[in-house]
Amino acid sequence: MVHRSLGLLGLMLMVALVSGCGLFAAGPGRTVEKFLYALEAGKIEEAKSYCSSELLDDYGRKLTQQFATVPANIQARGGIKATEVVEEQIVGDLAQVVVRVRFGDGGEEVLAQSMIKENGAWKLAAGK
């Protein structure tokens, strides 16, 4: 029994160490999806946490104002029913992501987003 408990403890420790190394960190496409769902839920501060420091420095107050109008627009379209990462191109610490968003009203939009890796996490970047 003690041997089995030590094995389980070792497995849990290994998972904790590997996840701390970023192996299970969200990729750029998943980050865009999390950003969209945060906006849909009206979680403005969470949505801003997915933005790069440069984007926040350049447009912080304006982003907050713009993000505040998004939840109502999404709800007017029946909410987000599904997202799909259509394309994800990663070159070093930069990425380009294309995401298809399907709404409850049957409509869809395809969004292209530039991404940058900051401190090991993918963040939305200003398009260049």
TrEMBL record:
Annotated ranges, domain DUF4878: 24-125
InterPro entries the UniProt entry points to: DUF4878 (IPR024267)
UniProt-listed Gene3D superfamilies: 3.10.450.50
Protein name: DUF4878 domain-containing protein
